[in-house]
Amino acid sequence: MKVLAAMSGGVDSAVAAARAVEAGHDVVGVHLALSRMPGTLRTGSRGCCTIEDSRDAWRACDILGIPYYVWDFSERFKEDVVDDFVAEYAAGRTPNPCMRCNERIKFAALLEKALALGFDAVCTGHYAKVITDADGNPELHRAADWAKDQSYVLGVLTHEQLKHSMFPLAETPSKAEVRAEAERRGLSVANKPDSHDICFIPDGDTRGWLEERIDMTEGDIVDSSGEKIGTHPGANAFTVGQRKGLKLGRPADDGKPRFVLEIRPKENKVVVGPEKLLNIDQMRGIKISWAGLPIPEIEARTQFDCMVQVRAHGDPVAARGWMEDVASDEADGGVREELVVRLNEPMRGVAPGQSMVIYQGTRVLGQATIDSARSLEWDPAAVS
């Protein structure tokens, strides 16, 4: 099989490519250049896809004896990931840029080009597995090592993309084993630290970076009943769950701290309230995609048991899910599909814009972008 190995410059992608070569595939390595100004991406252990990562990827391919190329996806990355990140924050949502990068760059754009060039599959160093069912349809499942499992950030992959996805690290029991294997193979990235944080914010100051790109206008801070209790320098500077920096003019009646419950950019309001209202009971998701074929309950519009996860390394929570057709607030007055998830127990720290990934057992059913998340003890309509 002709395989394109996506080489990030890290140890996982290097070992994944090595295993694909060892399995007898015809492998070509490619590194994605995501910025034409390397200084705008994080470097060292905190970044990915930088110049130094490109060199590490080249060295790995040289050791493996496979061709190596660098593909410039910087324009697509800016439009589909960076600009989307800014737009989502401007709309009062909290996006996950790694999800968008996997969805639109590392699989949509990369796989599209790979297939056009005659490759059969794209190989990456993600910790997840693809299992084929009795009818030959691919399913996305958690990796053997749940501590390193990355199925959450791959929840955006579609049925067709899964058909051409290869994850050689799926059954690896630990990251330590991957590093030891890299050492045995003579790969210089064996002990390279993992990348983390947002790669396109060099100093890690997300708030400061956003303030340079989003107009901030003073507005009202209101409580959960809609009463004005303070002012803010710009609604987009706040995040759901935030407690510090509110600078409210008066304490709550019970003397307890108040937290950001909701951000309303159209009204330029920040809604605050007691901590208990951060316990989310229900979420509604839009921009839904299914990882493989949808389960029968989706087509039948019936409820189903599931587990829902809202962070890459968050704990999944038991829930009931169902699909609903909801009147759209768009100008055409149409109808949109929403995925509704009712949690069996409350979840903290959920904000619109995050991705909720739905599981049954180890299988990823699909994902949706959270459009609203609320405590059933509070009706946001109370804030006028």
TrEMBL record:
Active-site positions on this chain: C101, C199
Record GO terms (molecular function): ATP binding; tRNA binding; tRNA-uridine 2-sulfurtransferase activity
GO BP: tRNA wobble position uridine thiolation
Keyword field contains tRNA processing: yes
Enzyme class (EC, first level): transferase
Any one of the GO CC terms: cytoplasm
Residues that hold ATP according to the record: A6, M7, S8, G9, G10, V11, D12, S13, L32, G125
Enzyme Commission code(s) on record: 2.8.1.13
Site entry (Interaction with tRNA), positions: H126, Q354
Keywords for the protein's UniProt record, in alphabetical order: ATP-binding, Cytoplasm, Disulfide bond, Nucleotide-binding, RNA-binding, Transferase, tRNA processing, tRNA-binding
Region annotated Interaction with tRNA, chain positions: 148-150
One Pfam family cited in the UniProt record for this chain: tRNA_Me_trans_M
Domain tRNA-specific 2-thiouridylase MnmA-like C-terminal: 282-370
PANTHER family, alphabetized: MITOCHONDRIAL TRNA-SPECIFIC 2-THIOURIDYLASE 1, TRNA 5-METHYLAMINOMETHYL-2-THIOURIDYLATE -METHYLTRANSFERASE
Recorded family membership: Belongs to the MnmA/TRMU family.
NCBIfam families: PRK00143.1 (NF001138), trmU (TIGR00420)
UniProt function note: Catalyzes the 2-thiolation of uridine at the wobble position (U34) of tRNA, leading to the formation of s(2)U34.
Identification of the protein by name: tRNA-specific 2-thiouridylase MnmA
Organism: Arthrobacter sunyaminii
